[in-house]
Amino acid sequence: MTYFPEEVVEHIVDFLGSHRDRNAVSTVCKAWYQVERLSRRNVFVGNCYAIRPERVMARFPWMKSLGVKGKPHFADFNLVPYDWGGFAQPWIEAAARGCPGLEELRLKRMVVTDDDLELLARSFPSFKSLVLVSCEGFSTDGLAAIATYCRGLRELDLQENEVEDHGRQWLSCFPDSCTSLVSLNFACLKGEINTNALERLVARCPDLRSLKLNRAISVESLNRILARAPHLVDLGTGSMMVNHHTEAYHRLINAFLGCKSLRSLSGFWDASSCCLQAVYPVCVNLTALNLSYAPAIQGDDLIKLICLCFKLQKLWVLDCIGDKGLAAVASTCKDLQELRVFPSDIYGAGTTAVTEEGLVAISSGCSKLNSLLYFCYQMTNTALVTVAKNCPHFTRFRLCILDPGKPDPVTDQPLDEGFGAIVRSCKNLRRLSLSGLLTDKVFLYIGMHAEHLEMLSIAFAGDSDKGMVYVLNGCKNLRKLEIRDCPFGDDALLKDVTKYETMRSLWMSSCDVTLGGCRALAAKMPSLNVEIINESDEADEFQENLSDLHKVEKLYVYRTVARGRTDAPDFVWIL
Amino acid sequence: MSPPLEHDYIGLSELPFSAAAAAGAAEDGALNLKETELRLGLPGSESPDRKEKVGLTLGLLPKVFGSGAKRGFSDAIDGAGKWELTSGGCGSEVEGGKGGALFSPRGEDGGGQLSGHGNAGKDVAPKADGQERKAAGQVGNSAGNDRGVAPAAKAQVVGWPPIRSYRKNTMATNPSKDKEDADEKQGPGCLYVKVSMDGAPYLRKVDLKAYNNYKELSSALEKMFSCFTIGQCGSHGIPGRDGLSESRLTDLLNGSEYVLTYEDKDGDWMLVGDVPWEMFTNSCKRMRIMKGSDAIGLAPRAMEKCKNRIRISF
């Protein structure tokens, strides 16, 4: 048997980027496990409770980049109570002890405190990049610590976090010696910013390529910033509130004329239609455009803008673009790969802003489309079948019909056939979200055809346990299954308990599973944490008295090598 | 933020009905517990899913909200501001039907935001789930045509549509400016602000867009925070059939009254009620129910008048 020197294995393993490949390598034999673990630089933990942080640090001591995700996805929609968990603290503490060479940290849906940020800032001398997505629990004081102590910081990217505003001075904490920033995103901050400090910071960071301003930044300030940073590739514009006939507006036009490298635009918080003209010069080069926070821009002006963006690959808009606007997108943006259409009127009057027609138009014009998030008031089977035929390359398909359980308005039928067409046609589909009236049949189709499906979100769908069983049996690559308000009960839950070990997590809320079913699951599968999230405040006193028939309101099941968790609040029972 | 304290603070743990709530069984003793169950529901209305249960709201009586005080806010409240026993749902998350998530289609739970409120009767809710779910769907259908309509007609579903709260909150403070009729009452979105109360273990959030004037806001806040005040009563706080009398309650509170204040965009703490309602909703970042004794500097003359009035009522 030929012996493979470790150096050779290491050299080969270095070529492997993906986590999946590296995970596979590490299971071959002990020697390979060692080589792999010492050479892994990027570590991704999809569920912070799947493993204890110390174990991760011990296994990968030379880790440079760590990504951790906390709360389940449905936490985005307020289905997970505020203090359920997902704390960053143990991770940052363990990393500070075990991996002081850490350079990048990316956290999603976690609770991060100012103390955590300060510890982070002080513990990693080579720290370069902090990305926080949908996190909460910290304030601008924590940002001040990052600014103060992270020498050589390259990236501070805050995406859609809930940040307490403790004043504007945090930005001034970047020392004069800080010249290394490449990416700065503080668009989610609600408070005022020290614009002088910001402009000086921008001026002294020649490598700055991505800058996303918050709503408090005025056009005057934007003008000055653009004048000092004409090499920006990615810009979040700040307020963009300006009147047509002012000097500020003219300077804005000039500023954008100077931005030859701009490829991605977002922001436009208060932008009205008239100031859109200022960005016309850069449209021709844009590959990404996010207008989803700009409700003041009317459909016609949106269309005028988009008709100039023929290189667009990624577009996020509000549904006030209308079906007509989507048709314009379809005829202009032939390279479009990702489209998101958000509802502008959430509690709405049912004004049909976009319908199935808009989606069909997009599909006929943009054959490269692979990622879709579409909120609409109605959808038909015919439309979905057409879309499936036109766009077989979907990897992510999320359709949200705003009325739960709404059928095809033309035929009054469920949307089983439409979604069935999607899963049959899109062989590489990895993520799917369903809506509208759906029976067990759609799950049969999904189980049969969605071979590569990794994440499935279901709401107000199905008739019986069979639906869930079809999915669990059929989707071999399923990693995350989240279900709300469906008639799936214990029989479905317990049909194939070993399946959950192959998945990251299962979420079921407002379904028909009972405490008895959950207890049975927990008993059979010690490798899973079976969490009951019970918000009735008296219930924890009576946990013992609750019968097995008690309906479980929220169930979260995930595989883990860390049995139970020490930070669960009272209303979370881990069976 | 520390997790909510247990039932003691709700103040009703010593009372039999909290036991009934959890066990769900009809442990009604002579006290007719169903009458005193805290229910989740919209202000002044019975929850449509629980017609058979009538909740009672326990209130407190801060005189400052009463009529007579010469501040604009109190004027707007105009007599309805007394926090007193009313029948109807215990308005915790008080939405006017336009606001955000209220209760799930099963009508049992107020969703993630409501921790620690008596979610009584969870187990006894009838198993009409399928029907309830479809009902929610149908209600959602019909509700599409009208906005700002009586809450009972439009059952908002928790966490639906699936839009990140960050986006919901951001859009709420960024309404479309091109609306022909800038009708604020029917504006889209929601505007959640935190409301803290001195001495309460946790804060609440209210949707300012759900109300049309100070009066509605005040009554909503009364209902939301009434339980904390009762909680301070401890063993004294057992409500009789008629409920707490004014004098007894103010006794217990040592004659302290509460003042509603808010933090505006500039970071200053202002007394609620001075400016027009629309201006208030546009500039209010968060609210705080202060003890009167802390509210020095906010209309001292008015405070004096209130204090005098309370003493006189004994």
Automatic annotation (TrEMBL), chain A:
Residue span(s) of domain Transport inhibitor response: 63-107
Subunit structure: Part of a SCF (SKP1-cullin-F-box) protein ligase complex. May interact with auxin and auxin-responsive proteins.
Organism: Musa acuminata subsp. malaccensis (Wild banana)
GO molecular function, one term: auxin binding
Domain COI1 F-box intervals: 3-42
Pathway connected to this protein: Protein modification; protein ubiquitination
Main location: nucleus
Source organism superkingdom: Eukaryota
One Pfam match: Transp_inhibit
GO cellular component, one term: SCF ubiquitin ligase complex
GO biological process: auxin-activated signaling pathway; pollen maturation; SCF-dependent proteasomal ubiquitin-dependent protein catabolic process
Subcellular location: Nucleus
Signal peptide start and end residues: none
InterPro entries: COI1_F-box, F-box-like_dom_sf, Leu-rich_rpt, Leu-rich_rpt_Cys-con_subtyp, LRR_dom_sf, Transp_inhibit
Keyword terms of this UniProt record: Auxin signaling pathway, Nucleus, Ubl conjugation pathway
Protein name per the record: (wild Malaysian banana) hypothetical protein
SUPFAM superfamilies in UniProt: F-box domain, RNI-like
Gene3D superfamilies: 1.20.1280.50, Ribonuclease Inhibitor (3.80.10.10)
UniProtKB/TrEMBL annotation, chain B:
UniProt cross-references to Pfam families, sorted A to Z: AUX_IAA
Domain of life, source organism: Eukaryota
GO cellular component: nucleus
Cellular localisation: Nucleus
InterPro entries: AUX/IAA_dom (IPR033389), AUX_IAA (IPR003311), PB1-like (IPR053793)
Region (Disordered): 96-154, 166-186
Biased composition annotated in UniProt, kind: Gly residues: 110-119
Keywords, sorted A to Z: Auxin signaling pathway, Nucleus, Repressor, Transcription, Transcription regulation
Coiled-coil regions, chain positions: none
GO biological process: auxin-activated signaling pathway; regulation of DNA-templated transcription
Signal peptide: none
Sequence ranges assigned to domain PB1 in this UniProt record: 190-292
Record field: compositional bias (Basic and acidic residues): 124-135, 176-186
Primary subcellular site in the record, as a coarse category: nucleus
Role of this protein: Aux/IAA proteins are short-lived transcriptional factors that function as repressors of early auxin response genes at low auxin concentrations.
Subunit structure comment from the entry: Homodimers and heterodimers.
Family: Belongs to the Aux/IAA family.
Protein name: Auxin-responsive protein
